[in-house]
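Board notes (copied after class):
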Amino acid sequence: MPSPTAALPDLSPAQWIWYPSERCLPNTFVLFRRTVEITAPLRRATGWIAADSRYRLEVNGHRIQWGPAPADPRWPEADPVDLTAHLQPGLNVIAVTVLYYGHGDGTWPIGKPGFLFRLEIEEASGPTRTVASDSSWLAHLCRAWAPGHYKRWYLRSLQEEFDANLYPYGWNEAAFATGPDWLPAMPLGGSPNLPALNTSYVEYQMDLAAGGPADARLRARSIPMLKDDAFVPIARLNDQRRLEWLRPVREYFECRAPAAYRTVESAGPVAQAVTWDGAAAWEFDLTSDRGVLLTFELAEQVVGWPGFTIEAPAGTVIELLVHEAHRPDGPPVLNTHFDAWSRFTCRPGVNRFETFDFESLRWLQLHVHGAAGRVRVGRIGVRRRVFPWPHQAEVRIGEPALQRLMDATINTLHNCAQEAFVDGMARERQQYSGDCSHQLHAIHLAFGEQRLPARFLATYSQGMTKDGFFLDCWPGFDRLARLVERQLDLTGWGPILDHGVGFNFDCWYHYLYTGDLAAIREPFPRLVRFIDYLATIVDDHGLLAVDNLGIPSVWIDHIAYRQQRHKQCAFNLYAAAMLEHAFAPLCEAMGETDRAARGRAFGRRLRRAAVARFWDPERQVFVNNRPWLAEDGEVRCCDRSLATAVLFGQCPGGRTRAALQMLVEVPPEMGLSYPANAGWRLWALAQGGRTDVIAQDLRRRWATMGSVIENNTLQEDWEARHDSNQQWSHCPVVPLYIAIQSLAGIWPLTPGCGRIEIRPQPADIAELALTAHTIHGPIRFASRGLRGDRRITLEIPAGANAELVLPRGERVNLPLAAERAPAGLRRYQLPAGQTVELHLRKV
């Protein structure tokens, strides 16, 4: 298979093709079919595939892959294809189902329909030949999915409704005979090396005419294809009941009409457990006047394609509903989560149904209705999709609750870090910087993965507006829509400026972990443009404004602040830290020393202005509402301001004691960030030597989360409700990276892990073992015992310049390092390529 990082070759003679048409409705499915004769053993059959919006590739009826990854429509990625093991001697069929979203989606902002394919076939004898998308392919407008179907919700285009009676079964196999509804595909014009956006096809909804942006380019996929071959079966049947519908079923699912149904009491089980093809299944009698509701649960929350097999009378209709969290005494129909349902209609005999687009779920419900007769359902579960990590995360803690928390964090990363850094796959499926991009730390350190973070830097940065701020959840539809809404004052959600600040940190941290300047080259000019934009919103106090900004907005957090103006302190300290400690070093790495000096000067001005306006010399902390104390009648602080000040030395005279104490105690006047932003406070506590508070926080605040206990995931908010729109598998992967960075204390100090610091502070955790991956190899850390009698084992990879930081007075047989340690600590040089055993008394 072509390397995921290889440059995309010239894809000629392939052409962008589509079903012959002059307009394409949203949620249109087109089937593309091409036969290929193989006459000799294959040496290889490799190539590339691209589509707008999503494709499913099959060969001779066997699923091969699904794609492409979410991307800016100006710079989408073609996926590599390797069919060497799938093309057999004789006649073969390459079959591709392509969905054009048309409606904005969290994974797709805008585009035009199109399909592109190029395959080189090299047989043991004979010349290499090319199979390319052109008019020799047959195209079928598949009405099993009705073209123009309505949108699911704001950030999900496809509300899937599939009628098996209209599907041309067998079309993906050689024996299938095509009819008059299979037409020669229509070439769309334009270059195969440019995206579908640049073809001559006119997209009628947005009036996107022929041609496209001049700088657009089709790129090669930059990450591996995801793994999607593992089937996760349901764990058990949780509930079964019959429904009597008081309103038409379709009306309820279309508009959620109130009082549309009632449950019917049953003397015994509605469904009988049976065995079907050696697996668990359920049988029941269906009547035409009532529906049957079967509610299943999985062992944990996963992301993938839910599916089931059913034998039922022709015309039987099944709504497949998915949910993250449900209580048995909650609403009978699980339609309380962004209308997360798909509908399937049976043809005669046995039907196998699987959603075309992926979902995030722990609960799966089948509502069966619309016919009368005996019904049997089985093989219910999810085809799971996960990133093919180069290493599996290794964290072992000798406390069951904390181990369960770490396992939940790892499972959460499987769900939220796939082709993009997303917040929650069940709601938005779109990537963010800021709170959500802290995934970068866990991905580098726990999984040793560099390609996915590098792709994040490229794709997020591409959402740079003409004004100089980032469309902060790019490439997703959300912020394009918000541009319109902000013009009409319809929403408070504009493109988030603090996420642009965070993105500078993301670029810097990636460079720290990898030393890879190539990944910085594309986003860097956009970082520069963003800093120039920030300079335009400085107010009369010399501070960046946080309100009345027009289109963009400042968020920082949604629960730590009572008023928008209270965010100005945290936002300016954050921006100042970024300018001095992320943007300026990146400028220097790029050889732009003058720009680095200007960036640092800008940061110093913001820091001094924040001190002048928000530093309380009596309390010795930053007070968010100091300018408005008389008006507010209370003191308000926040963990973000205090943590930022501690971490980046922003407290005047280095007076951090009061800020650190507030972070320890969490008094009522201190706003506490929501989970995905909680890492800032924990980082600051570790820097202040208070990992005892971190350990207690993990036990009491994190390990007790309902999502950890029920779903093996991490929820969005500190409190999460069942049967609601809340996210039970979000992206607050704080426990994993805090275990590595703060409890084990492993941090890169210079780019490319040129220097690595290890400052162990396991607190009262008696057993902790983990692996932190670096570009030099894995650092293995193990701690046993408690303070006063703790034994730590460190395995340092060859070539790593690692330094051990311990309290003064700790006795170890290691040479002192050249660099000085912070006050009260001492820095030692660790031997590369060796295992070090330590017996510590003060850690």
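Comment from the instructor: The two ends are 49 Å apart (CA to CA). The longest strand covers residues 290-311.
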